[in-house]
Amino acid sequence: MDESFEWFCKICLIIFIIICLNSMLGDLVFWASYSFPKITETTTHIIDTSKDPIQNNLDGKKYIIAKGEKQDYALNFMAEYSISGMVVAKNSNFWFRDIMRSKFDDLYLIDFGIVWGDLAKDKKILYKHMKFKSAKTLGQARMLTWRWNAGCPWDGSYIRAHLSHTHMTPANANVMGALLKIKKNNIVKIDGYLVDTYTDKSELIAHTSMSRTDNDPTSRGSGSCEEMYVTQVQIGDKIYK
User: How far is the first Cα of the chain from the last one, in angstroms, to the nearest whole number?
Assistant: First the structure.
């Protein structure tokens, strides 16, 4: 009995090691696939972080098929969307991608916490009073957490209205490479569409937020998160499409 149990444990350990190595290999292939985005053009247009994101609501009748890493999905275009601001948090580390990957993770490959308005004016003042973190929880949720100290010059309502946690899926590999290239504190402009997400069998995966002020967990975006299909990224004077 003891010998059988010992062999069972050894086999389980070998299987676990194989799964981990396979997942790590998948991670390496993922990063290698998107490591060298090409600049589409340069611009003299300075990114304006003072204004709210621009949103033009659509009639919800346009769908496209988007390819995840494992399967296909249907995206329902809800609004044209452009957000300009400073990146305060980034999350592309979803642990062992092939082990703990949900359908949402399969399509939405990266998250950003972005601020604008007064929050984006001076990063020294911002980080003196606030801290941000974008992460995936053990319960599979992908969340932006933030806190501020007693001397913070902004109240909670202003902060919530000038802060976005956006889950992004790229229109192509070059756009994905540009998204991975973004670093914390970069000033960015990201263009595309807010989308509702379904499987190719019409099963709902996620509704996008359609407002910057819907902060309740029961809201359309399950706590104000935007799901975005990204068609263009601007970092400084460089544009990627």
Answer: 62
